[in-house]
Amino acid sequence: MNPMEHPPIVDRSPLHDFLAPNAIAVIGASPDPTKRGYKAMLGLVKDGFAGEIYPINPKLEHVLGVRAYPDLASLPGPIDLALICTPASTVPTLLRDCGEAGAKGAVILASGFGETGPEGAVLEHEVLAAAREAGVRLIGPNTSGIFNLHHKVNLLALENVRPGDIGIVSQSGNMLLSLALEAQHNGQVGFSTYVGPGNQTDIGFDDYLRYLGEDEKTRVATLYVEGFRDGRRFLDVARAVSAVKPVVVYKAGSTDLGQKAASSHTGALAGSYAMTVDLLRQSGVSVVQYSDEILPVAEGLGLLQQARGKRVAILADGGGQATIASDRLAEAGLELATLRDSTRQQLAEVLLPQASLANPVDVAGSSDANPSILAECMAILADDDDVDSVLLIGMFGGYHLRFAEELLGNEMRGAEAMIELDRRTDKPLVIYSLYAPVKPPALRRLHEAGLPVYHSIEHAVRVVAALGERGAYLHAMASPEWATTVTPHPGHQAVLARAHRERRDLLEPEAKALLGAHGLQVPEEKVVRSIDELGGIAEAFGDRSLAMKVVSKDILHKSDAGGVQLDLNGESALREAYTRILDTCRTHVPAADIEGILVTPMARKGTEVIIGMIRDPVFGPVLMFGLGGIFVEVLEDVAFRAIPLTRQDARSMVSQIKAKKVFEGIRGAVAIDQEALVDLLMKVSSIVSAYPEIESLDLNPVIAYADGYAVVDARIIVDNKASIQPEGDIT
Amino acid sequence: MNPMEHPPIVDRSPLHDFLAPNAIAVIGASPDPTKRGYKAMLGLVKDGFAGEIYPINPKLEHVLGVRAYPDLASLPGPIDLALICTPASTVPTLLRDCGEAGAKGAVILASGFGETGPEGAVLEHEVLAAAREAGVRLIGPNTSGIFNLHHKVNLLALENVRPGDIGIVSQSGNMLLSLALEAQHNGQVGFSTYVGPGNQTDIGFDDYLRYLGEDEKTRVATLYVEGFRDGRRFLDVARAVSAVKPVVVYKAGSTDLGQKAASSHTGALAGSYAMTVDLLRQSGVSVVQYSDEILPVAEGLGLLQQARGKRVAILADGGGQATIASDRLAEAGLELATLRDSTRQQLAEVLLPQASLANPVDVAGSSDANPSILAECMAILADDDDVDSVLLIGMFGGYHLRFAEELLGNEMRGAEAMIELDRRTDKPLVIYSLYAPVKPPALRRLHEAGLPVYHSIEHAVRVVAALGERGAYLHAMASPEWATTVTPHPGHQAVLARAHRERRDLLEPEAKALLGAHGLQVPEEKVVRSIDELGGIAEAFGDRSLAMKVVSKDILHKSDAGGVQLDLNGESALREAYTRILDTCRTHVPAADIEGILVTPMARKGTEVIIGMIRDPVFGPVLMFGLGGIFVEVLEDVAFRAIPLTRQDARSMVSQIKAKKVFEGIRGAVAIDQEALVDLLMKVSSIVSAYPEIESLDLNPVIAYADGYAVVDARIIVDNKASIQPEGDIT
């Protein structure tokens, strides 16, 4: 079993101790309604917090009728949590007092720390040191605060938010406010715990996610993230949590502009957006692309079954909206289910002759006088084994408004039938109604019974897609096939150690030898060190066309330095090329230490792909896969996965490439052996895990064939040293 | 001046005669509330239609208190419009009666025509013939109906829709209903005229758009389109209308699934989505990608100024949402304006020290106790000459709810200042508030004064983008540089005529000669017809490497038939290649009529692009541009424009390509001469306009260089004939 399969999360998160506190001190409690020290008191008092509330203010006897204390030392009993509303400079001293008062956690609202520059960073460091010494964990600084509505801890004093099962961690206070208002407006969604992680000085997203994963009141963990502090640990926690409940992430900074905006907002180190999204998805996270989809997707994932597959049945009472839904489904990578004959027959029995029984099913007026027929059709569709989810599109809930008031009873019966169906089927029923903004009775009833109703076709389809992705993830993780553990070879470890000592990368033949030793398909090759060896070489390779490449630690860009000669036939051509390579390389890089010349048969033509590995400062070892050349460089059409991989990960890397049609053979070209590439990715994952000395790795190009592949060039960079380039080298 | 610049729309649309009628007959008027014949009567009576209402029902004396008539012949006066609620089969006879009753138009609700199959198509044909004979124009059949709210003609009896300035033509009745409910919910948007074009048997989208363009009550024309009947005419009308008011189109069928769904819904012929979108944008249409953006974009375009450029200033009271907005801006191709120093200084004077004065401007608490400061900042930003539009992001309108009730007055003053700013500036102010769903007083005030407030950052940014695109379009069309008119050359017309007679394409040398005659850069080349000519040829081309290609009307795929030999040096190589080409071609295509062998110098290496022209059955002559090879075939990274082009069109074709970085030179390659490609596109446009005999054209590849380009291969297909391929040819 791979160590990544079960991240080592066995203890209960320490965050429970203060996110569900028994006694809270509000440091800087105030009677001024514009102050946070008032708001927090108001939230606690108004919501009826059952534990002890200790306002701290040396100038006041009471705040909002609660007895105030001059300082923490004067408190009559211990506290679990302190809310610090005072300025940044007061925090280090206060933290020491907090520790003495028994606090396990402190929420620091003040800004003016690392996010403002070097001076603030020093203060932030001091704060962290004080907290460690005092044994107090920190939320923030620079946070909008927290709430735990089920525990009546509403330190933001948000009004009109209902306790519910969506947990939120958001680096933007406005985003929390926006979600709360949307939920209030929606009327059915509620929240469990909210945390603003602020600068993540002590506690990071990983810790908060772990807490939400354990919190019984939280059914969906929802995160707005500008940057991760420890991305690798977050991935591990996400994998563990997403096995038991959905994790929804909106990652800010999808573009350079956004990244720039985010970095001026918080100090977090942000990896590339595309990579972050790939790694989050690999760990079971539902990544939301647009901010206005966060709540709909969280609600849907919390309430509805995940889907077993991508085959969607659309039931519509109008062709136009069915078309829109079909477009969005296809864009999201979903499919229209092909309905079974028996399903069509059953539909034909309940619908009018003009109904369209192909998917999308258009009832074409059949429901006008009998809207509950839609529930019957949904049941027929859900019972089709070739259907994974059912999407209802149209005006359900509003028939009595549009056609005749008498239809209300019929609609209510339809709603009950849908609720009944939802209880008995294991497939998601996703409902869009154009009457959703009006909240008619049948839709209110559905909502009450746990069936969300969306008022945007786009959002409804995003929910269908998220349920499908979650189903596919859980299915794949039910029996993951991890990259095997390989034992590092002492000889190659020695080569790596030597390169490290010599502060250089592996030479191409060294890299290929290492890869070949672990089963990668590398071409036959020989390194010659004198022109006299060429006669024997030409003979050894028979009549094949050959390529020659300079081998030198000092020449990274071989072609640019004139270090590559191709399509060579016969000894005299080899000799001529040998001399030419040495001459031009010595002209380009006079100080180059040339190890020899590599001779290898010309690779057969095929499809060029690139496989790379980097150790990302946030996410650790990450594998990259893409098509060669312009596809990687211009179109950035690449897939990333954290190492180690499962076979499912490797397969999804290959199938994720937008230009993947190339793999299937275009313009009469043959299809390549995709499973061989999958094996290759798995082996690279194993090698990287076995050799921590490998800092990064670049197989470029790998040529893929109908039968296997060839690693034509390979570069392995050792440790963390920068590549040393002698002056005069061209790059 | 190009004839396309002012489409020949001089008369007033005949649709005014019956879309603003004085007398209406409702054929099939009914007292049954579930019938459309009841709904229409209800709509007319309830809304207080001021003209004559004639219910037609032989079984009733009155319908809804209005005197009924047994048939049209019994009416006491003439009608302008008939609403036909009776079944399909009754329609032809009724149309004749309508004509006699003076009707200029008829709305046919019934389905059961062409959309159901061949039998229905026959009936539809019959209906059209009857209408023509009777002099009656047709709306539908298979339509949801019409309304003209300012004229109190509400034949759908929609409740709670406000008269306003958004005109709608929608092939989906549910989409209209959805927009109406959204508008009702939004509370500020209203509609002028709605038409469901149904099968477009007589009147198509082009006619309706022309009507909306002329209609004084309509400020924005909004269309949901599944398919155009006469796309070319629509483009012409769109160009004329978009010069005076915004045209918003949602085109269904963006994917194969959606196209399939749409085609089962109506019978319309739908071109490729990507092409349709490009052509609509070329004609000034604002194309909306998601259905839930239709109303927000229409509202914004109707109320706000278009932007002069892409430089957006974001003003936010929270960093997170500014980041989201920045991401969406960049995705939409917009830019964050670089603020002038004077702007920053002015902002610094009103904001707290911790505010971020770079764009996005984050007031960082400065507005908490004084929200109207946001209006001051908006004015400062709007006055910056390097800012084209201002986007306010955050909680404006809700400060008094979140912080202190006393702030309400301050917020109202802020709203007035924003309204004042909107009146004096020529830049759009786009406002997102997370409090929009709550509709607090300041936001209601903004809305009343014509400043929309969005409750989705995504929608707000789409509006900013649409205003920018409209501004850019109007700017470009203020001084369009049309492709010049060229005079066809009699010699080449004769060649085309001969190819037409012989039912073949132009031979490659014929095609290149035609193109070269009109100034395209085609390589020097000679056609040899006997091996003995090769000596002179080799000499003529000096020591350049040469390529040879078979010339035969029977061999389309020259490479596949062995008809191409490259990199030939010297006479003996030419002779050998000549023989090899003839031998292999005769093996592959025994019956091929071989005209000769084309000899030409090998083209220099460069960047391969493709230029094609097709005569689309819906949109007429369309030019396509893309990068060569895989980019066109796999990634479909191409741009389309209707011919004739303006220079701005040609430039935007080149800059639209996703892989356009390639043109700028990557991996050390030189940048290509993009303006030469622009010239080339303009010349191809001119040639296509001059030679209507050219059915399609394919320049593939064109090799682009730092200095000019070379048309390396060219194919011109004549007329409408299918290419005749002899048996045995491989393709």
Automatic annotation (TrEMBL), chains A, B:
Q: Which Pfam families match?
A: ATP-grasp_5, CoA_binding_2, Succ_CoA_lig
Give every CoA-binding domain span: 18-113
Q: Which UniProt keywords apply?
A: ATP-binding, Ligase, Nucleotide-binding, Transferase
Gene3D superfamilies from the entry? ATP-grasp fold, A domain, ATP-grasp fold, B domain, NAD(P)-binding Rossmann-like Domain, Succinyl-CoA synthetase domains
Task: Cite the InterPro entries for this sequence.
Answer: Acyl-CoA_Synth/Transferase, ATP_grasp_subdomain_1, CoA-bd, NAD(P)-bd_dom_sf, Succ_CoA_lig_flav_dom, Succinyl-CoA_synth-like
Q: Name one GO molecular function term.
A: transferase activity
- What is the name listed in the Swiss-Prot or TrEMBL entry for this protein? Acetyltransferase
Q: Taxonomic classification, please?
A: Bacteria, Pseudomonadati, Pseudomonadota, Gammaproteobacteria, Oceanospirillales
